[in-house]
Design a protein that fits this description.
The protein is built from 6 helices and no strands. It has about 170 residues and is an all-alpha fold.
């Protein structure tokens, strides 16, 4: 399946499908992690969240996007299920550029960071069901923002095209 990924074009339909799959897979990974987590896992996740907090405070939004992807990767890695990890990284390859677009607004980043901390605390408390639900909420919000940005981007392209026609 991976060889087909470079040929996929991000559109509204496959973004919805990708996020449906991510919600299912990453939510399940969080549930597994809550059941299997170690103190070392929690320490590493907390350190990553602190880096994310610092990136927001210093308005290093590109760094935040990197730390965000790493945090999600750590959740998958620490779930100790390589199949889930591989599935999500395939999707990540497709939408990574769009995710960076989401991570440009401080309000959005703060909501995202709050979600991440809620996921962390649920995992720490070994509440797998809450961790799963928090991940679902987090990814659903990201999906909505991404789709809004794609709609806005398409609207802007349409306006530019129309302006170009009128300028001729």
């Amino acid at each position: 399946m991976k060889p087909l990924l470079p040929f996929m074009v991000c559109n509204r339909n496959n973004v919805d499908e990708i996020y449906d799959a991510r919600i299912f897979v990453e939510g399940g990974a969080c549930k597994l992690l809550a059941e299997k987590r170690t103190d070392q896992d929690l320490q590493a996740l907390e350190e990553q969240l602190n880096l994310m907090d610092q990136a927001i405070s210093t308005r290093q939004y590109e760094d935040y996007s990197t730390y965000d992807q790493q945090f999600h990767g750590m959740l998958l890695e620490f779930s100790r299920n390589k199949i889930l990890e591989t599935i999500v990284w395939m999707f990540q390859d497709i939408i990574s550029g769009y995710i960076q677009q989401i991570n440009q607004d401080e309000d959005t980043l703060r909501k995202s960071e709050n979600d991440h901390w809620q996921i962390f605390w649920a995992i720490s408390d070994q509440d797998g069901e809450l961790a799963r639900k928090m991940m679902e909420t987090h990814l659903d919000r990201s999906r909505r923002i991404l789709l809004q940005n794609m709609q806005l981007e398409n609207s802007e392209k349409t306006i530019q095209t129309q302006e170009g026609k009128f300028a001729s």
